[in-house]
Amino acid sequence: MSKMNDLKALLEELESDMVKFYEKGNKAAGTRARKTLQSVKSLAQEIRVHIQEQKNA
């Protein structure tokens, strides 16, 4: 479940940067948001693989 907590933390971080990018026009926040989204994608894939391994065990 620690990966789930990590995912939640990344999404909270993402939300902050998305607000800064879309509402305030902060371009650096857009870069951080893209980086965070890539981390979310990677972590989600790790979670998917772990679930599949548990299911097949």
Radius of gyration, whole Å: 14 Å
Number of domains: 1
Mean pLDDT: 96
N-to-C span: 18 Å
Unreliable spans are: none
- The general outline is elongated
Number of extended strands = 0
The percent range for strand residues is: under 5%
Share in helix: over 70%
Order of helices and strands: HH
**Major sheet description:** none
Query: How many helices does DSSP assign?
Result: 2
Helix/strand class: mainly alpha
Task: Give a quick rundown of the structure.
This protein has 57 residues and is an all-alpha fold. It is 93% helix and 0% strand.
Structural notes for this entry:
- With 57 residues, this protein is an all-alpha fold.
- It has one domain (2-56).
- The chain is 93% helix and 0% strand.
- α1 runs antiparallel to α2 (27-56).
- The model has no long low-confidence stretch (mean pLDDT 96).
Protein topology:
Layout: H1 2-24, H2 27-56
What keyword list fits this structure?
single chain, 57 residues, 2 helices
